[in-house]
Specification:
heterodimer; A: three-stranded antiparallel sheet; two-stranded antiparallel sheet; B: Arc Repressor Mutant, subunit A; 2 domains; 8 helices; about 0% strand
């Protein structure tokens, strides 16, 4: 393919002139598709559009209206009907508006929450429906004048889109709410693991191996070479106990190393043997602690963290099923004071989650359900397939906890919430209040406000997502990447391992939530014995560190790196007179940003890097190393299309400023906002890129600015994306 | 840049937007390497994607540029779904060259100019290009038909294309001066 752009244009036009293929007129087809899309949108919308559609249907479908005798006076009847419908609609709107204004003058039910007038209307509607027995919900009637406790999570949390004033809220369109979707009582929700028989070890191992092998075949990935028995043993100890085997360990297990069948004995001993029990439990308690709590606790929280660590160690030593461990943490009530009769070490969990209900919601969803809702706090999130009802549905449960922190101890109790409705409200784009019912893992759940956390614990541990999240967590700890990408459990996923994850999750439930079993399944799979050195061909397909799907055809090296350092190096690369070439980008990703590689056997392996580069160099038709204009590549070689689309949506958004785009990018890649220095460096990079376009009068200024920002943001993502 | 009114400007009418820009987008996609049927589909997808959301028409150049960007992204996404990596080595350069050459955003003028310029070529050169672009012959087959070496056929077509480019540049300059 030619590199001269005008030559390419000329070739394309010559093909048109000689090939007699002219641009077709597709106007009608496009307009038809737009119309279909509009109709689809209307049927999907919740409130305002539904009302509008109802009115339209009412007007258009007047012949079926029973009062009108169309056969006698069709024209007159039609006109009368239209007037009736318009008048009725107007009266309805006026009445509803007056009702809203009247209610707006009443004292707010919950100053710290997101109560509003429109909400009250809908609440009453819900209460009426519930009283008629239409819904299986226990609605606790509360006093409109009551005030939420100041120390509860509810009072400290900030709800999305809740910054509108009361007067603004009264001006919202008093729209009719669409009928609530069918709610299933929790007792009736079938467990996804019902009727699943516990399979034997060999059968589960076979399922894993077959699934992996099938994916390798489908994606034309070479079957991995196996590591030496000594390296396998070393890897086994590192992944299950967090240390290397001693000489005594080698001597002890020497006879079992000879063949794959006997190795199971080693896994069995490490996971269940009395000798390694303490080591194993402490190691995995530490990992579970990291999963359950925020990444960087403050020094003030160190004590609570230590308490939780001890609690988890004891639980794991006692071989407590994981669902029980989690249920205890979620429903814990009491004091952190050991001298208090109400002492409970499990309350450290809530103490560490902190007083912000929104943060607690995000953390619980991420760690225990494997679903990322951070973006859904403010808007519908297509990447993680979550919306505000998912976020607020879980928050409704989380608001039921009250965390009181004194100078020395923390007390956790039930919050005395007085919400009229169990769910919460948010405003959609049109300012319409939308009710978000209590919902966990995509299913509406019953919420008893007097004991919301018991419901929370029960709903979470019986959810299929919980079982999948736990299996995925173990897999990620052992292999570096989960079977499903972080935050995407339970949603429609194109992961080739989703089915395997579901099957393992069922077996996890069938094995009474024994995570030691999952560890054994993972380490005894054939993939665990794969070499660390993939073939060049494999590297073109199995590259999760560049954002692709992990196929586990070789042992990955997860790189501990510092995004700030990576960004600093990106600035230096932009300042280079050569500009930022593809080769520089690969350098940045492949080695310049790595600070330290903790996995034994891989540190700074020059051979591996050479192989990676070779993988690119062998494809001259796909990549031009001399070209510096490759925004697509900057998203990451092998980046999944959904992730690439999300990056495009952020970078090319016309609503967001550059700073806002940068913030979205950081939240998407790292779940943290950019620091001041990061913003400074990003602006520096953008200006450096803009300087290269100075004096260029050929490009449209709007288009040019868009191109500059898109390219810069993609390069930043490339630099900071966790490898 | 003065923003046109959304409510009064007829350019915000989806039909007018589609009619005005679809040919340019189709030709741009063909330039990127799309097959004609794929270009048809992506043109539709481009307009459906853009017009489903609120769209403000600032100017023809800005709208055309935005539509091309969306079309490009859809093209890349399509290739990704197919598991293919897109060679994006000259995307910006192609966009710049497009804006330079395709002054009317639809490409109709360029097609017209190209037809004129083709008449200035020798019969032999036109025949070679026809075999290449219409009959999709290989260079060896063209050489055989013209009774020249393969290298000679390559040179003949290269010279013809160079002549066409120069002719198009000259026509563009003349148009700008007039």
């Amino acid at each position: 393919m030619t590199n001269n752009p005008k030559k390419r244009i000329l070739d394309a036009f010559l093909r048109e002139v000689y090939g007699n293929k002219t641009p077709p007129d597709q106007t009608e087809e496009i307009l038809r598709r737009l119309e279909e899309a509009d109709q689809s949108f209307a049927s999907d919308s919740k409130i305002g559009v539904q009302l509008e559609q109802d009115i339209l249907d009412f007007e258009n479908d007047s012949s079926e209206f029973p009062i009108v005798k169309t056969e006698n006076h069709p024209q007159k009847s039609m006109r009368t009907l239209n007037w009736i419908s318009v008048a009725a609609t107007l009266l309805f709107c006026v009445g509803l508006t007056l009702a809203i204004i009247a209610m707006a003058k009443r004292p707010r039910a919950n100053p710290g929450g997101n109560d509003n007038v429109a909400k009250n209307v809908i609440e009453n509607d819900d209460a009426n429906q519930a009283s008629k027995g239409n819904q299986p919900l226990d609605v606790d009637a509360g006093s409109p004048g009551s005030v939420a406790p100041t120390n509860s999570l509810a009072s400290d949390s900030k709800q999305p889109n809740s910054n509108k004033t009361q007067s603004q809220l009264t001006n919202t369109n008093p729209a009719k709410r669409s009928p609530p979707s069918a709610r299933i009582p929790i007792e009736d929700i079938p467990s996804f693991a019902d009727n699943v028989r516990r399979a034997d070890f060999a059968s589960i191992k076979s399922t894993i191996d077959e699934s992996m092998m099938n994916n390798w075949h489908v994606n034309v990935i070479a079957t991995p070479e196996l590591v030496s028995p000594e390296n396998w043993m070393t890897r086994m100890f590192e992944k299950t106990l967090g240390r290397q085997p001693s000489t005594a360990d080698f001597q002890r297990f020497e006879t079992y190393l000879s063949d794959g069948g006997s190795r199971k004995q080693i896994a069995e001993t490490l996971a269940n043997g009395e000798e390694f029990d303490r080591e194993f439990s402490h190691f995995w308690a530490e990992k579970f602690l990291a999963l359950m709590t925020l990444k960087s606790p403050s020094s003030a929280e160190a004590e609570r963290r230590e308490e939780l660590r001890q609690h988890l160690r004891e639980s794991f030593l006692d071989d407590t099923p994981v669902d029980q461990v989690v249920a205890e943490l979620l429903s814990a009530t009491g004091s952190s004071d050991p001298s208090s009769p109400e002492f409970d070490s499990a309350i450290s969990y809530w103490a560490l989650l902190g007083p912000d209900a929104n943060n607690a919601t995000k953390q619980i969803s991420r760690s225990l359900l494997g679903t990322e809702v951070r973006c859904a706090q403010c808007h519908t999130d297509s990447y993680f397939s979550q919306d505000q009802t998912d976020f607020l549905g879980l928050t409704a449960f989380v608001k039921g906890v009250r965390v009181f922190k004194s100078s020395e101890h923390t007390i956790v109790s039930e919050a005395e919430t007085k919400r009229k409705n169990p769910g919460l409200f948010y405003e959609d784009d049109k300012g319409v209040a939308v009710y978000a019912p209590p919902k966990i893992a995509g299913l509406e759940r019953r919420l008893n406000q007097k004991d919301s956390r018991a419901g929370l614990a029960k709903a979470i541990v019986t959810s299929d997502r919980f079982a999948m999240a736990m299996v995925n967590w173990v897999w990620k700890e052992i292999y570096g990447y989960g079977l499903v990408r972080d935050g995407q459990i339970g949603i429609e996923s194109n992961s080739p391992h989703h089915q395997l994850l579901e099957e393992l999750a069922r077996q996890f439930v069938a094995s009474d939530f024994n995570f030691r079993s999952v560890v054994k399944w993972a380490v005894m799979a054939d993939s665990f014995s794969a070499t660390t050195k993939p073939s060049v061909d494999t590297l073109a397909k199995d590259i999760p560190k560049y954002g692709g799907v992990p196929f586990f055809s070789y042992a990955y090296d997860r790189i501990e790196y510092d995004p700030q350092v990576a960004l600093k190096r990106l600035v230096a690369a932009y300042k280079d007179t050569k500009g930022l070439t593809l080769a520089t980008r690969i350098e940045l990703a492949a080695k310049e940003s790595r600070m330290e590689i903790p996995v034994r056997g891989n540190p700074n392996d020059p051979e591996l890097k050479d192989i990676e580069f070779q993988g690119l160099k062998d494809k001259p038709n796909e990549f031009d190393f001399s070209d510096e204009n490759a925004p697509d590549f900057a998203k990451g070689w092998g980046t999944e299309s959904r992730m690439a689309s999300t990056l495009d949506a952020i970078a090319q958004s016309q609503k967001l400023t550059f700073d806002e785009k940068l913030e979205h990018l950081y939240l998407f890649a790292l779940d943290q906002k950019p620091r001041r220095n990061d913003i400074k460096r990003a602006i520096e990079i953008r200006d450096l890129q803009a300087n290269r376009y100075k004096g260029d009068s050929t490009t449209n200024p709007v288009n040019r600015q868009n191109l500059i920002e898109t390219k810069v943001l993609q390069d930043i993502w490339w630099a900071i994306f966790p490898r | 840049m003065e923003k046109s009114s959304t409510s009064t400007n007829t350019d915000n009418d989806p039909r007018i937007l589609v009619e005005k820009f679809q040919a340019g987008i189709w030709r741009y996609l063909r330039t990127l390497g799309c097959e004609s049927s794929l270009a048809d589909d992506l043109v539709q997808d481009t307009f459906v994607t853009v017009l489903q959301k609120p769209f403000e028409h600032y100017s023809d150049a800005a709208s055309a540029s935005y539509l091309r960007k969306v079309a490009l992204n859809l093209f890349i996404s399509f290739k990704r779904r197919e598991g293919k990596v897109v060679a994006t080595e000259n995307i910006e350069a192609i966009s710049d060259a497009w804006q330079d050459w395709v002054v009317d955003d639809s490409g109709d003028e360029l097609v017209s100019s190209l037809n004129d310029c083709l008449q200035e070529l020798t019969e032999r050169a036109r025949w070679a290009l026809r075999m290449r672009f219409h009959d999709k012959m290989s260079r060896a087959e063209i050489a055989e038909n013209l009774n020249i070496t393969e290298h000679g056929a390559k040179n003949l077509m290269q010279r013809a294309k160079k002549q066409l480019r120069d002719c198009l540049e000259t026509k563009k300059q003349n148009d700008q001066q007039s």
